[in-house]
Hints:
The chain is α+β, with helices and mostly antiparallel strands.
Amino acid sequence: MSESSVDEATDVFIGHRELLxxxxxxxxxxxxxxxxxxxxxxxxxxxxxxxxxDNPRAxxxxxxxxxxxxxxxxxxxxxxxxxxxxxxxPLVADGDGAEDPALRTESVSLAMLVVLESLTPLERAVFVLxxxxxxxxxxxxxxxxxxxxxxxxxxxxxxxxxxxxxxLYRAHPRVRREATERFVRAALGGDIAELMEILAPDVTVxxxxxxxxxxxxxxxVHGRDKAVRLINSFTTRGRGPTxxxxxxxxxxxxxxxxxxxxxxxxxxxxxxxxxxxxxxSDVYIVTNPDKLTHVRRxxxxxxxx
Length: 305
């Protein structure tokens, strides 16, 4: 293929990169794996070239989705030896309010990504394509090389599973922000009484340190009493870091808290609320440094806060 043809194919790929990133990330929950899949997609695309392709967007989506399905096997094997709970890699907006390009596509909350982990790879692909990006069943059938009837069945199973575990509810941004700030103040201030008030009785705390950072836990912690003890162990002087700097950021489209230790990200904390919006039903804490490499501290923006 000529250099000009490669350049043309690359320009087309770049024009669709945000869409592809959003699709693949929602299928995998990992930025690093998504970048690898996009690199594989670009190589496949430039190797084929644009000649004779009537719909480059559809062709690129098909390549990316099928590479992502193959990548799921790698991720599954990696998780078999992962220490503690596994959480998706958070997408964190910059401090100046500018979001990662992926966040300009359809945003799927961290809580929803956790639920999607329980689907089969094909169910997840169909759910993401249909429910998040609005692809019709006939279009999805062409992308994953299945019949429309098979796709409808996959979509039905995926929707039923997701809706059973996560009701169709999303708190108002102002309510979420207020609850997030209230929780973080209580957690970092060691206010146990306030934590007991804001946490739902059946709250679950997910802590992903990858065996490298606190809070440590081999399984998610269920119940308010256990949750308070775990959160308190993370924030109490002498048992956790004492020089953390708190910043509020949007994570996967939702208000959340990011803790920095010096210039390095230490933890991302995301809260999910009960349907009435007055208590925290789930807390997701990512401290694994490998999952925070894309989180940046924007000093200029923070000076203006």
